[in-house]
Each structure stands twice: as structure tokens, then as C-alpha cells.
Amino acid sequence: MEVDNDALQATYKKLADLLGDDLMMKFYQEFRGTQLSLPMKLYDREGAAKAVRQHYPEMTVKELADTYGYTQRWVKQELKQAKTDQRPK
């Protein structure tokens, strides 16, 4: 089906500009009528914490914070917690 971009709703027009007509149509067919609220953070805490533990010290605290969208303070807390978890009891 040919898409008439000039007649699209603003939201679908933006999606077509970002993704192309084919992916916009797939998105439309999957989610039409659904109200979406998308998280500000791309990565969830558990996944980011696991990744931080895996990639440190190859990546700096700043690089990890920038990559996963959390603060340097949070990254340091996760690394401290990981160190505490590894101590023998």
C-alpha cells in the first residue's frame, strides 16, 4: 500500500520520517489505538547493573554512566555493591 505522507497524522508522519514508510506501517498495524508511554531510560536498572559489572574496568565510570544513561554516582554504587557481593562470608 502506498502511503500518502502529506495526509498522515503528525505522529505517523514523524515516524515515517524517522523509520521509513514500511516500518511506520508495521508500527501502525501493531500499536494503532494504543496509548504509549515510553521510559526515559533505554536500559533498565538490572540490565544496566549487570552490564556495568561486566564492562568495568575496560570502560571508565564516566563511559559506563554515559552509555547506560545513569549517573556516575549510581555506577560507583553498583560497582561497590558488586565488590561487597564477592566478599566471602
From TrEMBL:
It comes from the Bacteria. InterPro entries: Homeodomain-like_sf. This is Mor transcription activator domain-containing protein. It comes from Levilactobacillus brevis (Lactobacillus brevis).
